[in-house]
Amino acid sequence: MAEQERRQRSKPKGSQRALENLPVVADRTQHIDDLLDEIDTVLEENAEEFVRNYVQKGGE
Amino acid sequence: MSTPKVIGTETEFGITLKGVARFNPAVASALVVGAKQGVTMNDWFKEALLLSEDAGNWGAGVALPEGTGVNRVLANGARFYVDHAHPEYATPETTNPLDATLYDKAGEETLRQSSKLASDALGSASSFGLYKNNSDGKGNSYGFHENVMLDRRLPFGEIVRLLPTFLVTRRIIGGAGKVGVENGRPAAFYQVSQRSDFFEEVVGLETTMRRPIVNTRDEPHSDPAYRRLHVIYGDANMSEVQTFTKIGSLVWFLTALEAAALDGIPRLLDPVLAGDVVSRDLELTQELPLVGGGAATALEIQQLILQRLQAFGLAPAGVADEWADLLDTLGRSRDEAADRLDWVAKLTVLRGFAERGVAWSDPKMRAIDLQYHDIDHSKSLHRRLVETARMRRLFTDGQIEEAVTRPPTDTRAWLRGTCVRLFSSEIASASWDSLVFTNLDGELSRVPMMTPHGATEAELGDIVRASETASEMVTRLGGADG
Predict the structure, then answer these.
(1) Per-residue model confidence as pLDDT tens digits over B105-146
(2) Lowest mean pLDDT among B38-47, B239-248, B320-329
(3) What is the DSSP string of B367-424?
């Protein structure tokens, strides 16, 4: 499991890395934007009421 | 050979009735836990569910109807029950961290199936929401507990001396993340841990107030040669990798502790205070004072403990690599751990909304925090991250669904779960350490299971498979202790 991870993360070194990093960063920003938009569509409609009603007594 | 590390987890789930401010959570929990046993919504339940308009006594004061299934033993050997005002799921006994993680996730699936049945019975008016988290953000916490079997000859004083430092620093790989602060603790807009705010002592018996980092509860549910260490300090995790590494590192640590191989590891001067610091140290740079002078960060202490354990050996399969890789990642670039750690994944999402102008005090941030832990796949923000390959998994949905009805084969959970599946009509009662059967004449017979790693498929498979009834099986067992 861990080995696979390390392989996925191994990146080119030096100046090659600097060049390749640009599109990756833009891509990441796009990804987080897509994710936040998607989350907005599934969030409980009334956040304030949802949070206020979430009371959990009598644990453990 | 060291004592086998039989492992299990217990999770209390937060419960809501969507759109309803006041309801009775004990009744709601009974409807969810009992859903598969045919406990269905009738007039009594409708009234009781909404009874507690003024319920200062949550859960108390309502007597459930006779026969309501609030304590079930499942075909996978797990226990599923109402604990005060929460549905609680205790995994079957397992022998390794990967199985413990699988059955922990099977608990979510069990809750998902049961809450859907219970919600369908409510009609269209509302539905139950179930959350695998540990705090309501209003000062109430509910538990996630890890249980590990130890040799009782290990002096408890050694556990008290060395375990707190490990547990407190383990937060950086075990935290589920939380918006805000509770219980009068130091300010923070976001914390690594859901649970940290609620720990006030180093050692003690309590679980509901003045919670201790090391809990002294001593109920082995087995031959008393064993101790069942009850670890109440951890957060419940959605991430499979995180659950695996959290449990696996604990089990490995305890294996080395039993072998007296941990002398000289760093010890925190004030573990309770250090817990506050670690939970607020999102950049992983705060140094914690150590016994005997000096200081180190949680990450450095975890790395030192890992090195000692690597020198010791006997790592549970897969744990050393996963743990080392997580610590390396956190040391290099915290945000890269968002593919494995709940607290980092959640922080990434929340920071994204903060950059869009949402204040940390906005209820939307707290709603995102809660909804990360919703076990309903259509609502869960964790599930979104998994489905879009932003977070790694260890299992397929199919493997988890299978673990809902199939017990581990290498502990007494195998006999328990298999009897629930084959002989449920003959079971008079089932507990962790025994099964009681009724025969046609109404006579009771008890099968003790005092060894957690006994009564396995390898030991008893032939006998059980050759038996048409539980009575036949009991005769063949000849009263032997499995």
Answers:
(1) 999 999 999 999 999 888 877 899 999 999 999 999 999 999
(2) B38-47
(3) HHHHHHTB-STTT-HHHHHHHTTSS--SS-HHHHHHHHHS--SSSTHHHHHHHHHHHG
Cβ neighbours of B261 (radius 10 Å) = 15
Distance CA B366, CA B371 (A): 9
Inter-chain Cβ pairs, chain A and chain B, closer than 8 A: 116
Q: Report pLDDT digits (tens) over B283-313.
A: 999 999 999 999 999 999 999 999 999 999 9
- Catalytic residues of B, by residue number, are 83
Q: Which residues of B touch A30 (CB under 8 A)?
A: none
- Tokens in use for B70? 């609030």
Helix count and strand count (H, E) for chain B:
15, 17
Of A43, A52, A53, the CB nearest to B371: A43
Determine contact: A57 vs chain B, CB below 8 A. yes
B183: Cα separation from own chain's centroid: 22
User: Which pTM was predicted?
Assistant: 0.92
Contacts of B379 in chain A (CB under 8 A): 42, 44
Instruction: With a cut of 60, say whether residue A6 has pLDDT above it.
Output: no
Q: Check if B126 contacts A (Cβ < 8 Å).
A: no
- C-beta atoms of B384 and A1 within 8 A: no
What interface predicted TM-score (ipTM) does this complex get? 0.91
